[in-house]
Structures are given as structure tokens and as C-alpha cells.
């Protein structure tokens, strides 16, 4: 999308349910996205306009969340982000997370499984929940997704809502790992592409054993990787021509 097209989406993005501080953060960051990022968003037609849905993204950079939120909003949904609980303890970011009704995860403790209960409840109440199944930035040297954690599978199988695989690429150039300030110039290109819902229907009535959760997780990560392969292949092709 061009900057003009991106700006036009400002008036189309849903505002109800965003909360004051989350909404303010969006309004502050949105002009930066419009001016400094060549953002291309595709596959929004796969996101249902209402009802519970999981948006599952690969994880490259701290800027992934901004691009993912933009994808959700331009798809007509206000996302609830599943994120590390330490963010809630930060002065400004904590207000944003609480305001937006996001869902904290206590990493490395037994509380991590408990965090999925409000996520499942949110999905059953028709919310859009945004998750990075890898749980952290990929450690693959070429940026490919790692094996995902089972949380996304458990949420999907307990709530039985659609899981939309979404791949991001270019966010690692906008805000490389280990940096605090984004690299806005030269203008960065970021692609966000969604695919059709991952078919997990044959697993819905099965006991949630480790094998079932592993299978569901593998399907989600395979779908995300397929979407990412398409982005990278398209970029390689455009560079050769």
C-alpha cells in the first residue's frame, strides 16, 4: 500500500474496544508506519469479521507487534495480544497492555498454562487473539520460524476457532534484535501476508495429549513457514528483475 492508502485505513480501523492508552499508542505509531515503512499487507480476506479467531505470527523483531497490530486493525479486528507478563510491570507499556485488554504470560513458571485460560475465554467470547507461537525471536540464522510452543495449539483446540497463519518479513531490518531505536531511513519494506485457516478439525474431539498438541502446533508453524516462503521468493524474484 502507498502512504496515501495507508492513511486512508486510519478512518476504517475499528476503535471500539481498544482502550484509551492502547488507542493512543496506535495513533502515535501509525504516522511513523505511514511515513517510514513501505508496508504491504495481504490476505486480510482470510480474517473473519466477527467471532473468535487466532492470528499466529512468526517472530523476528520487537517491531513485529506493531506490524501485527496494523494487520489486525486493517482486517477490521481489535487484537488482544498474548505477551510476556513483564511488559505489564513497565510504567508506560504496562498501561498500554492493561488498557488494550491484552493477556499476560508468566514465562518459565507454572503460571504459563494458566494464562491460556483467559485467552480461551476471550476467544469463546468472540475476540481476536494475536500470538507468536515461537514464544521468542527465532534463532535461525536465516530468519526461518523455529518449532512453536504448544500454547497456540491448546488455545485453538479448546476454543475450536479458526487459526490464521500470518508471516512477517522486513521487521528485522526496521528494528534489528538488540537495538532500541528503529532504523527508519532508508525507508524499510515490510510484508505481512496471511493464509487460509489451518485445518485442525480432525483433532477437535481428541484428548489433548502431547502428540495431539505437537501435531496441531506443527501444522500452524508449517502454514506460517509456507507464507514466509512465498514472501521471500517474491522478493528474490523482484530483485533479479
UniProtKB/TrEMBL annotation:
Transmembrane regions listed in the UniProt entry? 20-39
Keywords noted in UniProt: Acyltransferase, Membrane, Transferase, Transmembrane, Transmembrane helix
Is Transmembrane helix found in the keyword set? yes
Under Pfam families, the record lists: Acyltransferase
A molecular function (GO) held by this record is:
acyltransferase activity
Q: Which domain of life is it from?
A: Bacteria
- Which InterPro entries does its entry note? Plipid/glycerol_acylTrfase (IPR002123)
User: SUPFAM superfamilies attached here?
Assistant: Glycerol-3-phosphate (1)-acyltransferase
Name of the protein: 1-acyl-sn-glycerol-3-phosphate acyltransferase
Identify the species of origin: Lentzea atacamensis
> Which lineage do the record's taxonomy fields give for this organism?
Bacteria, Bacillati, Actinomycetota, Actinomycetes, Pseudonocardiales
Amino acid at each position: 500500500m502507498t502512504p496515501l492508502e495507508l492513511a486512508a485505513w486510519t478512518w476504517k480501523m475499528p476503535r471500539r474496544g481498544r482502550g484509551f492508552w492502547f488507542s493512543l499508542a496506535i495513533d502515535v505509531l501509525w504516522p511513523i508506519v505511514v511515513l517510514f515503512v513501505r508496508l504491504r499487507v495481504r490476505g486480510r480476506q482470510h480474517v473473519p469479521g466477527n467471532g473468535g479467531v487466532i492470528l499466529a505470527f512468526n517472530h523476528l523483531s520487537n517491531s513485529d507487534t506493531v506490524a501485527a497490530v496494523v494487520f489486525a486493525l486493517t482486517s477490521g479486528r481489535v487484537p488482544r495480544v498474548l505477551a510476556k507478563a513483564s511488559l505489564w510491570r513497565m510504567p508506560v507499556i504496562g498501561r498500554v497492555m492493561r488498557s488494550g485488554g491484552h493477556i499476560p504470560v508468566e514465562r518459565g513458571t507454572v503460571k504459563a498454562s494458566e494464562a491460556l485460560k483467559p485467552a480461551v475465554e476471550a476467544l469463546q467470547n468472540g475476540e481476536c487473539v494475536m500470538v507468536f507461537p515461537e514464544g521468542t525471536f527465532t534463532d535461525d540464522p536465516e530468519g526461518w520460524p523455529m518449532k512453536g510452543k504448544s500454547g497456540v495449539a491448546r488455545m485453538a483446540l479448546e476454543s475450536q476457532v479458526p487459526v490464521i497463519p500470518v508471516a512477517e518479513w522486513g521487521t528485522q531490518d526496521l528494528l534489528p534484535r538488540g537495538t532500541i531505536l528503529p532504523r527508519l531511513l532508508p525507508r524499510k519494506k515490510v510484508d505481512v501476508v496471511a493464509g487460509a485457516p489451518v485445518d485442525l478439525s480432525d483433532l477437535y474431539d481428541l484428548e489433548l495429549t502431547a502428540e495431539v498438541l505437537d501435531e496441531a502446533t506443527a501444522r500452524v508453524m508449517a502454514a506460517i513457514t509456507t507464507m514466509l516462503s512465498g514472501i521471500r521468493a517474491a522478493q528474490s524474484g523482484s530483485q533479479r528483475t
